[in-house]
Amino acid sequence: MEYHEIGKTGMKVSALSFGASSLGAVFHDIDEPRALEAVYAAVDGGMNFIDVSPYYGHYKAETVLGKALRNIPREKYYLSTKVGRYGKDGVNTWDYSAKRAKESVYESMERLGIDHIDLINVHDIEFADLDQVVGETLPALVELREQGLVSHVGITDLQLENIKWVVEHAPEGMVETVMNFCHYTLNDDKLTDFLDLFESKGIGVISASPFSMGLLSKRGVPAWHPAPKPLVEVCKKAAEHCESKGYPIEKLAVQYAISNPRVATTLFSSANPDNVRRNLALIEEPMDEQLVREVREIIGDQFRVSWANS
Q1: Which of 71, 118, 206, 306 could form an S-S bond across to 179 if both were Cys, CB 3.0 to 4.6 Å?
Q2: Is the pTM of this model over 0.85?
Q3: What was the pLDDT predicted at 224?
Protein backbone atom coordinates (compact mmCIF):
# COMPACT_ATOMS: atom_id res chain seq x y z
CA MET A 1 0.00 0.00 0.00
CA GLU A 2 1.25 3.46 -0.89
CA TYR A 3 0.56 6.44 1.34
CA HIS A 4 0.26 10.11 0.38
CA GLU A 5 -0.21 13.28 2.40
CA ILE A 6 -3.53 15.04 1.81
CA GLY A 7 -2.37 18.52 0.85
CA LYS A 8 -0.69 20.14 3.84
CA THR A 9 -2.82 18.48 6.50
CA GLY A 10 -0.11 16.16 7.73
CA MET A 11 -2.50 13.24 7.26
CA LYS A 12 -0.56 10.56 5.36
CA VAL A 13 -3.26 8.28 4.06
CA SER A 14 -3.53 5.03 2.13
CA ALA A 15 -3.89 5.32 -1.65
CA LEU A 16 -7.08 3.27 -1.39
CA SER A 17 -9.38 4.08 1.48
CA PHE A 18 -12.70 3.03 2.96
CA GLY A 19 -15.94 4.81 2.15
CA ALA A 20 -18.62 3.86 4.66
CA SER A 21 -21.71 4.77 2.63
CA SER A 22 -22.50 1.08 2.10
CA LEU A 23 -22.82 0.63 5.86
CA GLY A 24 -25.95 2.76 5.66
CA ALA A 25 -27.60 0.21 3.34
CA VAL A 26 -27.61 2.94 0.71
CA PHE A 27 -27.49 0.48 -2.17
CA HIS A 28 -29.02 -2.66 -0.65
CA ASP A 29 -29.64 -4.26 2.74
CA ILE A 30 -26.58 -5.22 4.73
CA ASP A 31 -25.61 -8.00 7.09
CA GLU A 32 -24.35 -5.94 10.00
CA PRO A 33 -21.77 -8.42 11.38
CA ARG A 34 -20.33 -8.73 7.86
CA ALA A 35 -20.37 -4.94 7.49
CA LEU A 36 -18.36 -4.58 10.69
CA GLU A 37 -15.95 -7.20 9.38
CA ALA A 38 -15.55 -5.12 6.20
CA VAL A 39 -14.33 -2.19 8.30
CA TYR A 40 -11.91 -4.42 10.20
CA ALA A 41 -10.63 -5.91 6.92
CA ALA A 42 -10.01 -2.42 5.53
CA VAL A 43 -7.99 -1.28 8.53
CA ASP A 44 -6.14 -4.58 8.83
CA GLY A 45 -5.27 -4.30 5.14
CA GLY A 46 -3.63 -0.92 5.57
CA MET A 47 -6.46 1.48 4.82
CA ASN A 48 -6.12 4.25 7.37
CA PHE A 49 -8.67 6.75 6.07
CA ILE A 50 -12.41 6.22 6.60
CA ASP A 51 -15.07 8.53 5.22
CA VAL A 52 -18.74 8.67 6.20
CA SER A 53 -21.64 11.12 6.41
CA PRO A 54 -24.83 11.51 8.45
CA TYR A 55 -26.63 11.47 5.09
CA TYR A 56 -25.63 7.89 4.26
CA GLY A 57 -28.57 5.73 5.24
CA HIS A 58 -29.93 8.76 7.11
CA TYR A 59 -27.57 8.32 10.08
CA LYS A 60 -27.32 4.52 9.83
CA ALA A 61 -23.83 4.47 8.27
CA GLU A 62 -22.36 6.54 11.11
CA THR A 63 -24.14 4.37 13.67
CA VAL A 64 -22.87 1.10 12.19
CA LEU A 65 -19.38 2.49 11.64
CA GLY A 66 -19.35 3.64 15.24
CA LYS A 67 -19.87 0.05 16.38
CA ALA A 68 -16.81 -1.00 14.38
CA LEU A 69 -14.64 1.89 15.52
CA ARG A 70 -15.16 0.98 19.15
CA ASN A 71 -13.03 -2.10 18.46
CA ILE A 72 -10.26 -0.32 16.53
CA PRO A 73 -7.49 1.69 18.20
CA ARG A 74 -8.01 5.39 17.43
CA GLU A 75 -4.45 5.82 16.15
CA LYS A 76 -5.13 3.27 13.39
CA TYR A 77 -7.32 5.57 11.28
CA TYR A 78 -8.22 9.08 10.21
CA LEU A 79 -11.94 9.77 10.29
CA SER A 80 -13.78 12.02 7.84
CA THR A 81 -17.45 12.94 8.04
CA LYS A 82 -19.68 15.72 6.75
CA VAL A 83 -22.32 18.36 7.43
CA GLY A 84 -25.09 19.91 5.36
CA ARG A 85 -26.90 16.91 3.94
CA TYR A 86 -29.20 14.78 6.08
CA GLY A 87 -32.45 12.82 5.98
CA LYS A 88 -35.14 11.14 8.01
CA ASP A 89 -37.85 8.57 7.28
CA GLY A 90 -36.65 8.27 3.71
CA VAL A 91 -36.80 12.01 3.02
CA ASN A 92 -33.61 13.89 2.14
CA THR A 93 -32.99 17.21 3.85
CA TRP A 94 -30.36 19.94 3.56
CA ASP A 95 -29.27 22.58 6.06
CA TYR A 96 -26.00 24.48 5.57
CA SER A 97 -26.54 26.97 8.41
CA ALA A 98 -23.73 27.50 10.92
CA LYS A 99 -25.97 26.39 13.78
CA ARG A 100 -26.91 23.10 12.16
CA ALA A 101 -23.34 22.45 11.03
CA LYS A 102 -22.02 22.72 14.57
CA GLU A 103 -24.85 20.61 15.98
CA SER A 104 -24.20 17.99 13.33
CA VAL A 105 -20.54 17.63 14.29
CA TYR A 106 -21.43 16.86 17.90
CA GLU A 107 -24.16 14.42 16.80
CA SER A 108 -21.75 12.63 14.46
CA MET A 109 -19.16 12.25 17.20
CA GLU A 110 -21.77 10.71 19.45
CA ARG A 111 -22.91 8.22 16.79
CA LEU A 112 -19.32 7.37 15.91
CA GLY A 113 -18.22 7.04 19.51
CA ILE A 114 -15.27 9.41 19.10
CA ASP A 115 -14.31 12.76 20.62
CA HIS A 116 -12.40 14.21 17.69
CA ILE A 117 -12.91 14.34 13.91
CA ASP A 118 -9.85 14.46 11.67
CA LEU A 119 -11.61 15.95 8.64
CA ILE A 120 -15.02 17.63 8.54
CA ASN A 121 -16.53 18.41 5.14
CA VAL A 122 -19.38 20.48 3.77
CA HIS A 123 -21.30 17.78 1.90
CA ASP A 124 -22.41 18.09 -1.74
CA ILE A 125 -22.17 21.85 -2.02
CA GLU A 126 -24.15 21.92 -5.26
CA PHE A 127 -27.28 21.68 -3.09
CA ALA A 128 -26.24 24.75 -1.14
CA ASP A 129 -26.03 28.46 -1.78
CA LEU A 130 -22.29 28.70 -2.45
CA ASP A 131 -22.15 32.15 -0.87
CA GLN A 132 -23.57 30.59 2.31
CA VAL A 133 -20.96 27.83 2.17
CA VAL A 134 -18.16 30.41 2.03
CA GLY A 135 -19.69 32.95 4.40
CA GLU A 136 -21.38 30.75 6.99
CA THR A 137 -20.88 26.98 6.80
CA LEU A 138 -17.11 26.92 6.39
CA PRO A 139 -16.46 29.61 9.02
CA ALA A 140 -18.52 27.57 11.52
CA LEU A 141 -16.33 24.55 10.86
CA VAL A 142 -13.18 26.65 11.11
CA GLU A 143 -14.36 27.73 14.58
CA LEU A 144 -14.53 24.07 15.57
CA ARG A 145 -11.06 23.60 14.07
CA GLU A 146 -9.75 26.45 16.19
CA GLN A 147 -11.33 24.84 19.25
CA GLY A 148 -9.56 21.55 18.47
CA LEU A 149 -12.76 19.59 18.00
CA VAL A 150 -11.85 18.88 14.36
CA SER A 151 -8.41 18.96 12.76
CA HIS A 152 -9.14 19.86 9.15
CA VAL A 153 -11.92 21.31 6.99
CA GLY A 154 -12.93 20.38 3.45
CA ILE A 155 -15.70 20.43 0.86
CA THR A 156 -17.22 17.72 -1.32
CA ASP A 157 -19.20 17.70 -4.55
CA LEU A 158 -19.72 15.88 -7.83
CA GLN A 159 -19.47 19.13 -9.80
CA LEU A 160 -15.87 20.31 -9.97
CA GLU A 161 -16.93 23.79 -11.04
CA ASN A 162 -18.66 24.32 -7.70
CA ILE A 163 -15.58 23.16 -5.83
CA LYS A 164 -13.43 25.53 -7.88
CA TRP A 165 -15.76 28.47 -7.12
CA VAL A 166 -15.64 27.90 -3.37
CA VAL A 167 -11.87 27.36 -3.37
CA GLU A 168 -11.39 30.62 -5.25
CA HIS A 169 -13.76 32.63 -3.05
CA ALA A 170 -12.87 31.26 0.39
CA PRO A 171 -10.09 32.87 2.44
CA GLU A 172 -6.71 31.15 2.11
CA GLY A 173 -6.40 28.17 4.42
CA MET A 174 -10.11 27.82 5.09
CA VAL A 175 -10.52 24.86 2.72
CA GLU A 176 -7.80 22.25 3.26
CA THR A 177 -9.18 19.37 1.22
CA VAL A 178 -11.58 18.72 -1.63
CA MET A 179 -13.43 15.48 -2.28
CA ASN A 180 -14.83 14.68 -5.71
CA PHE A 181 -16.29 11.51 -7.17
CA CYS A 182 -16.53 9.81 -10.56
CA HIS A 183 -14.02 12.21 -12.16
CA TYR A 184 -10.83 10.20 -11.91
CA THR A 185 -11.85 6.95 -13.52
CA LEU A 186 -11.30 5.00 -16.72
CA ASN A 187 -14.19 6.85 -18.36
CA ASP A 188 -13.67 10.35 -16.95
CA ASP A 189 -10.46 12.07 -15.83
CA LYS A 190 -11.83 15.61 -15.60
CA LEU A 191 -10.36 15.98 -12.12
CA THR A 192 -6.90 16.36 -13.69
CA ASP A 193 -7.92 19.76 -15.12
CA PHE A 194 -8.29 21.14 -11.59
CA LEU A 195 -5.24 19.67 -9.84
CA ASP A 196 -2.96 22.63 -10.57
CA LEU A 197 -5.43 25.02 -8.94
CA PHE A 198 -5.89 22.88 -5.85
CA GLU A 199 -2.16 22.30 -5.45
CA SER A 200 -1.40 26.02 -5.88
CA LYS A 201 -3.52 26.64 -2.80
CA GLY A 202 -2.06 23.76 -0.81
CA ILE A 203 -5.35 21.86 -0.96
CA GLY A 204 -5.34 18.06 -0.85
CA VAL A 205 -7.41 16.02 -3.26
CA ILE A 206 -9.58 13.03 -2.39
CA SER A 207 -11.34 11.04 -5.10
CA ALA A 208 -14.16 8.55 -4.76
CA SER A 209 -16.07 5.90 -6.69
CA PRO A 210 -13.36 4.25 -8.81
CA PHE A 211 -16.05 2.11 -10.46
CA SER A 212 -18.17 5.15 -11.44
CA MET A 213 -21.05 3.92 -9.28
CA GLY A 214 -21.14 0.61 -11.14
CA LEU A 215 -20.45 1.76 -14.70
CA LEU A 216 -17.05 0.08 -14.58
CA SER A 217 -18.17 -3.32 -13.44
CA LYS A 218 -19.06 -6.66 -14.94
CA ARG A 219 -22.44 -6.49 -13.19
CA GLY A 220 -23.20 -3.12 -14.75
CA VAL A 221 -25.14 -0.17 -13.44
CA PRO A 222 -28.07 -0.34 -11.05
CA ALA A 223 -31.44 0.89 -12.31
CA TRP A 224 -31.09 4.20 -10.46
CA HIS A 225 -27.78 5.13 -12.08
CA PRO A 226 -28.00 8.64 -13.59
CA ALA A 227 -25.51 8.12 -16.44
CA PRO A 228 -26.87 8.64 -19.98
CA LYS A 229 -27.61 5.48 -21.96
CA PRO A 230 -24.79 5.84 -24.55
CA LEU A 231 -22.22 6.00 -21.75
CA VAL A 232 -23.75 2.98 -20.05
CA GLU A 233 -23.57 1.04 -23.30
CA VAL A 234 -19.90 1.76 -24.05
CA CYS A 235 -18.89 0.96 -20.48
CA LYS A 236 -20.67 -2.37 -20.83
CA LYS A 237 -18.66 -3.04 -24.00
CA ALA A 238 -15.48 -2.08 -22.18
CA ALA A 239 -16.31 -4.50 -19.37
CA GLU A 240 -16.91 -7.28 -21.90
CA HIS A 241 -13.60 -6.50 -23.60
CA CYS A 242 -11.71 -6.70 -20.30
CA GLU A 243 -13.45 -9.96 -19.46
CA SER A 244 -12.35 -11.42 -22.82
CA LYS A 245 -8.76 -10.60 -21.83
CA GLY A 246 -9.14 -12.35 -18.49
CA TYR A 247 -8.67 -9.00 -16.74
CA PRO A 248 -11.86 -7.90 -14.94
CA ILE A 249 -12.70 -4.26 -15.50
CA GLU A 250 -13.06 -3.81 -11.73
CA LYS A 251 -9.37 -4.69 -11.40
CA LEU A 252 -8.32 -2.19 -14.05
CA ALA A 253 -10.64 0.47 -12.64
CA VAL A 254 -9.31 0.36 -9.10
CA GLN A 255 -5.71 0.19 -10.28
CA TYR A 256 -6.22 3.21 -12.52
CA ALA A 257 -8.00 5.18 -9.80
CA ILE A 258 -5.00 5.05 -7.46
CA SER A 259 -2.35 5.47 -10.18
CA ASN A 260 -1.96 9.25 -9.85
CA PRO A 261 -0.05 10.29 -6.69
CA ARG A 262 -1.46 13.83 -7.05
CA VAL A 263 -4.74 12.30 -5.85
CA ALA A 264 -3.96 11.54 -2.22
CA THR A 265 -6.50 8.77 -1.79
CA THR A 266 -9.44 7.13 -3.52
CA LEU A 267 -12.50 5.97 -1.61
CA PHE A 268 -14.46 2.87 -2.44
CA SER A 269 -17.35 1.49 -0.44
CA SER A 270 -18.43 -2.04 0.38
CA ALA A 271 -20.15 -3.72 3.30
CA ASN A 272 -18.67 -7.03 2.13
CA PRO A 273 -15.28 -7.94 3.66
CA ASP A 274 -14.48 -10.21 0.71
CA ASN A 275 -14.75 -7.23 -1.66
CA VAL A 276 -12.49 -5.19 0.58
CA ARG A 277 -9.81 -7.89 0.64
CA ARG A 278 -10.14 -8.43 -3.11
CA ASN A 279 -9.55 -4.77 -3.90
CA LEU A 280 -6.63 -4.64 -1.52
CA ALA A 281 -5.05 -7.54 -3.39
CA LEU A 282 -5.74 -6.02 -6.82
CA ILE A 283 -3.89 -2.79 -6.15
CA GLU A 284 -0.74 -4.72 -5.30
CA GLU A 285 -0.47 -5.90 -8.93
CA PRO A 286 0.88 -3.79 -11.82
CA MET A 287 -1.69 -2.12 -14.09
CA ASP A 288 -2.02 -3.13 -17.75
CA GLU A 289 -1.39 0.23 -19.48
CA GLN A 290 -2.26 -1.17 -22.91
CA LEU A 291 -5.63 -2.33 -21.66
CA VAL A 292 -6.31 1.17 -20.31
CA ARG A 293 -5.75 2.52 -23.81
CA GLU A 294 -8.04 -0.11 -25.31
CA VAL A 295 -10.80 0.72 -22.84
CA ARG A 296 -10.43 4.40 -23.63
CA GLU A 297 -10.83 3.63 -27.35
CA ILE A 298 -14.03 1.70 -26.67
CA ILE A 299 -15.44 4.54 -24.55
CA GLY A 300 -14.59 6.91 -27.40
CA ASP A 301 -16.67 10.09 -27.54
CA GLN A 302 -18.41 9.20 -24.28
CA PHE A 303 -15.17 9.94 -22.42
CA ARG A 304 -15.77 12.64 -19.79
CA VAL A 305 -19.53 12.49 -20.28
CA SER A 306 -20.98 13.17 -16.83
CA TRP A 307 -24.36 13.60 -15.12
CA ALA A 308 -26.06 15.61 -12.42
CA ASN A 309 -26.00 14.68 -8.74
CA SER A 310 -29.08 13.37 -6.96
Answers
A1: 206
A2: yes
A3: 85
